[in-house]
Amino acid sequence: MTQSSRHPASRLxxxxxxxxxxxxVRTAQYPGRLFPLVLLENGRPGYVINAYxxxxxxxxxxxxxxxxxxxxxxxxxxxxxxxxGDAQLDEAEVRxxxxxxxxxxxxGTIQPDGSDSLNLYWRPVLxxxxxxxxxxxxxxxxxxxxxxxxTALNPAETRFQTAFQRYQDFKARTQYDPFVHxxxxxxxxxxxxxYAVVQHKRDSxxxxxxxxxxxxxxxxxxxxxxxxRDKMLLLLMAFGGLRRxxxxxxxxxxxxGQFRDTGAAWITLADPVRGPTRWTGEDGREHAAxxxxxxxxxxxNGQLPVGHPLRNLQPRCLYGRHSHGLYVGFKGMxxxxxxxxxxxxxxxxxxxxxxxxxxxxxxxxRFHNKPAHWPYHPFLFIRVDADGFGLPLTLAAVEKIFxxxxxxxxxxGVGPHSLRHFYGYxxxxxxxxxxxxxxxxxxxxxxxxxxxxxxxxxxxxxxxILVAAYKATDKAVPAHIGEQxxxxxxxxxxxxxxxxxxxxxxxxxxxxxx
Length: 514
What we know:
It is a single chain. By secondary structure, the protein is mainly alpha-helical. The chain contains 17 helices and six strands. The protein has a two-stranded antiparallel ribbon with strand order 1-2. The N and C termini lie far apart (59 Å).
């Protein structure tokens, strides 16, 4: 039975909150980011919640986590107001607020007949999701208890703050009360300790396997992509193992050059904020600094009008979501080398050669004969549509580029991340690279993250067992068993350099040839 059949009203739009409103405003303190000002039902800003949001922005909270924390606190506030209205909460209601909220998120608020007395229309969330929500609420709780122990300044928040302070008392009780697990059932308003279900683990057997892009269509998909920029993106995701957001952080001078032995593109990777970079300034001198400092020094763009998205340029992961598509998240990378030694590891060097050729066509078509300082930013990938030509490419555009490319070869039902799963699958099943080396190729901090992608094909395992069994009994391995059964890639001739081109490359004195 589907979730929509269990909850007919889940298809209905939830009523907008009448207890708070979020208005995005520009501030002098954060010139490149819109501040989400929270207004309460009395039309005044919520002092504590907005102070908390300012605190998060000051400490450089990632945009995705920032939004999740804001949503968690606002949902708790809305739940409290919709359930209790303007009534003063008694002791039992105050102590049970967090548990009531957790139960509503875990089980949903929609009744079997499709009604919802709270007008929230929340669908059930997974226990792991609820634990994240409560962790975000705890973070806000710690902030408000540390900074606002006195009576709240805004009367509309008084009841909410009191409930949080009582919840803080409950958390302290967990340090000494052995019967704290019975706490919800001590209230006459609660008949059972349903909150304990939050600790249940999700059954790993029920998890759906990750979708890997079919290896037999990879080359054809890239070959049938006409736009050089789109080819570069697909090559980076499929043969470089990058996430869909990571190519959008690349700068034009991250294209260092070519590897002398194969001619593959040499592309450096770095943290978009703290990562090091070198460049030649307008003064003709060499500079070295972080990428954030590079953007602030070279791309202030004071000649652009106030409010232009490229004015006061900063790393894309520091923008808000309401920033003309400039925001691009960054999950993080772990590097094993230094500076230019942190580069894209190509599955096959032929893909790196194809990237170099596509890049040359891309520069010729999109950057040749353009005005000085155009496109007013250093990011490698730009938009080519008429409405935003020259602006940094957006995440939504990457999704569309992949969907069109996959559609040309008849592949549906997978997303861009399936290319990263193909990268891990190919490392394990075809190249048979040790997982520790695969971890370095995928720039993971933990090998546990690599295990999600490092999938050995069952047929490969079966063949390896057969070969080992024959060798253990001193028997010759039949030719049909020793053959490779996993799809191997066949690269067109255009993906390689000729012998003459390789000879010239190897003997070149160009400083950008490695």
